[in-house]
Amino acid sequence: MVAGLKNSDSMENGNGNVFQLIVKQGEPTLVTPAAETEKGLYFLSNLDQNIAVIVRTIYCFKSEEKGSANAGEVIKDALKKVLVHYYPLAGRLTISSEGKLIINCTGEGAVFVEAEANCAMEEIGDITKPDPHTLGKLVYDIPGAKNILEMPPLVAQVTKFKCGGFVLGLCMNHCMFDGIGAMEFVNSWGETARGLPLTIPPFLDRSLLKARNPPKIDYLHQEFAEIEDKSNTGDLYKDEMLHRSFCFGPEMLDKIKRQAMEDGALDKCTTFEALSGFVWRARTKALKMLPDQQTKLLFAVDGRPKFNPSLPKGYFGNGIVLTNSICEAGELLDKPLSFAVGLVQDAIKMVTDGYMRSAIDYFEVSRARPSLASTLLITTWSRLSFHTTDFGWGEPILSGPVVLPEKEVILFLSHGKERKSINVLLGLPASAMEIFQEQMTL
């Protein structure tokens, strides 16, 4: 049963033809766990509190041999079963007596919608760059939800296409898990759909990351520092925003690493370190920051192995911590690439058990959110195996975000069959994007 038209706007499908994507959405239903689950309040750690944003992703599946007529039913049935293990996802966000986010495990269920598109999947065009106008139709937004408390932690939409393929679109609240946790959940869901036991069952107890009593802040947490925008970049962002993706193949990535090492200042560097330094400089230049403008780089480090003891396998929650580096734009651009890459390396080295516990305690005392003024926030999905998700129709031919969560975010996604290339996705004001593009030719 399919009811109501959902946003139809025209777009070019890459062949220069203006194409109208129309998605008809069915009535949303609530999918509750298949068995009785625990009720009551479920603790979210301070690492969960900081990133309570909705992450929208899509997974595109082809189905040459096996028709996808029952895809919605199979995925919905598997969701019921997997929610028994991941029961907090069937609850609702609320505010605790301490004024923090907490989950009320009501068992109400995740929201599920089946939909139909008026075309073949190929006609959508390039989905490797975030495009909220088009890809936004492949995820279901709760009508009238004014804030995250009014949105269930998990909303799923299965859209069937004329070609027999289908897309799974997910809206998940980042406070429920980081990329690794989300990947483990979606892969567990796929295993359940194929009748397999969970390879990595979730470890649900987040009290491992409780703040210390009394809190102990041993580090200067500059990730929360508010930087004055002397360069008026805020005005630039009033222009039209452009979203682009830049693909860095293995040769180009090697070239950037060689460039970072050529002056002998660094003994070694990883692909992530070299690429982060490279795009930080390029974006700083593109935004025409003044030489004395401070610029901050923020990025997430996986704290799971860095905690002492390390977090248990399958930890359900955010095990990532934000680290940072701050310097003046003039210094960043005047010095060689090795300088920027060295700053990235120092920021990674800073992340120890002591630093992460201090960050947890800092939030306990200050309730601060990391400031994004004059900041670049790099988020890396290149090591996440979202492409291995299989609900019985093989691995997705494409997967990725619908939209970048903030204008300051740049996303690294692995790309290609061998996953040796990295797609860099970002949005910039049109004038800045032109300069950024020039910087991308090595």
TrEMBL record:
This is Histone H3.1. GO terms for molecular function: acyltransferase activity, transferring groups other than amino-acyl groups. Belongs to the plant acyltransferase family. It comes from Turnera subulata. Pfam families: Transferase. The gene is HHT1_2. It comes from the Eukaryota. PANTHER family: OMEGA-HYDROXYPALMITATE O-FERULOYL TRANSFERASE (PTHR31642:SF318), TRICHOTHECENE 3-O-ACETYLTRANSFERASE (PTHR31642). Keywords: Acyltransferase, Transferase.
